[in-house]
Amino acid sequence: MSNFACIFSNKLNTKMEIENNSVDKTAGKAKNFIYELIDKDYESNRWNGNVHTRFPPEPNGYLHIGHAKSICLNYGIARDYNGKFNLRFDDTNPEKEEQEYVDSIIEDVRWLGANFDDRILYASDYFEQMYKWAVELIKKGLAYVCDLNGDQIRETRGTLTESGKESPFRNRSVEENLDLFERMRKGEFENGSKTLRAKIDMASPNFNMRDPIMYRIVHAEHHRQGNNWCIYPTYDWAHGNEDSIEGITHSICTLEFENHRPLYDWFLDSLGVYHPQQIEFARLNLTFTVMSKRKLLQLVKENYVDGWDDPRMPTISGYRRRGYTPESMRNFAEIIGVAKRDALTDISLLEFAIRDDLNKHAKRAMAVLNPLKVVITNYEIEEELEAVNNPEDAEAGTRKVPFTKEIFIEESDFMENPPKGYHRLVPGGEVRLRYAYIIKCEEVIKNDEGKVIELRCSYDPETKSGSGTSTKKVKGVIHWVSAKQAINAEVRLYDRLFTVENPGTDDDWLSKINPNSLQIINDAKIEPSLKNSKPLDKFQFERLGYFSVDTKYTTAEKLVFNRTVTLKDSWGKQNK
Ligand code: ATP
Ligand code: MG
């Protein structure tokens, strides 16, 4: 069974269908319906051979893995068609937006490897143009100033079966609208006292076409515009304008905007300006993960996690801190593909992608998380033994690890009363120490409470790895660290942040937080070659998983490691 097939067979029981798009690679491009559509545009020369996409985040939070999917898709299209890709901030909502978010988004998009050249663009830079276009729509009799407040507008919108009611202000003269709209801009009116609305059709079966709001009055300081503006465009009005101004060809967004497309088209057609094509795709949902920015913000603000880049967060910065690589995230985006139907993606696919990447690139090392002291009574010398850095990569070479009379092994690698099939160390039993010798447990030392605190072992000098003359074979091979040279380190083990598969759909989602999602080990023992490791250096600790040096808590005195991912999909197994 291939690795992929193996992953898919680990599907969890879920009501939603789990995404399983096969990747059909043609000329290096994953063919999905968007590529097919762009191919057709190419053939018909619809955009004069141009392809120009954008990623348009609102700077009201940090980016998450769903955004990564959108970035990979949009940037990947621009790359594959020799087109362009813009990073554009949809900064139209001053109350929720902050420079901190802008900075983090730029860092994350760069880190993912999406190339936007110098095109970091801001919707707020287009406010003047948008205002002029709004005036044009007023002049064409297609927009009006409405004095209904938010509640009244909602109440008069109608229902699925009933048309909405026309606003009593709908038929104001063009002159009056122009005057009021100008005064709205000047700041003469209070928040919420007036809006500019498009004059479309209060009986439209599509709610979005029932005289949607184009501008709201918000007296708030904008993180880039300061107090230049007190009217702010709505998403629907602003988004098509932004795309048009930038000469975007394909405006790719998530499915919830499908019903907004007629409005996107209506605005641009009414203005008679350059008109990109909006295309919708299914957003990414991951098992055991919440993805809504509102919920992620709550996790941060209410200290359920340790900031936006907590390694348990599904944010790009969280994954980066945990040890994920940009390649693994791009590969993940490729594996899951792009669909037209909403689905829930098994998080083990993401874990597969990072494991696969780190297996190829991470250096191996030995670390003992729960140390048990072993004294090798008949070993009196000190040696430097040769250890392989990465069996997947011949060029990674070897390193020396010190071997001495006293070593640490993992507590769980010794059992006094082992169950059947236990192949590690037992009283009187033998085990091989990785890269070293076969040892035999001669004596078990316990403290007053009966806890095993030390083992006395003998070693067989003829069993040295690589050069021993003995033909002795043992079933178990365990890792170890020489006590004398060991470095103390902190190791952080992570589990899923939620205990249920689809926490996002649960009203009581906060109660589904996994209380054991973080386990901190203060006194792990690490082999000395890791001494000068830098934040984000990545290793496979043999038999324990992939680990990355933490960026937040590592100091000159203390190394802190985050476990990026285990070696195997233990959850998949548990679910079998
Ligand atoms: P909100 O609008 O509630 O703040 P959002 O997640 O839509 O949240 P945006 O900053 O507007 O945030 O998103 C930027 C882009 O990322 C949009 O084009 C959006 O469609 C896309 N996107 C957001 N969430 C996902 C997701 N889960 N999967 C794929 N794309 C997503
Ligand atoms: Mg959005």
Write the layout of secondary structure elements.
Layout: H1 3-9, E1 25-26, E2 29-30, H2 33-43, E3 52-55, H3 65-80, E4 84-89, H4 99-112, E5 120-122, H5 127-139, E6 143-146, H6 150-155, H7 174-186, E7 195-198, E8 213-217, E9 231-233, H8 235-246, E10 250-254, H9 261-271, E11 277-281, H10 293-301, H11 316-322, H12 326-336, H13 347-361, E12 363-365, E13 367-368, E14 371-376, E15 383-388, E16 398-403, E17 406-410, E18 430-433, E19 438-446, E20 452-460, E21 477-478, E22 481-482, E23 487-494, E24 518-526, E25 538-541, E26 545-549, E27 559-565, H14 570-574
Parallel strand pairs: 3-4, 4-5, 10-11, 12-25, 14-20, 18-21, 23-27
Antiparallel strand pairs: 1-2, 6-7, 7-8, 8-9, 13-24, 14-17, 15-16, 17-22, 18-19, 19-20, 23-24, 25-26, 26-27
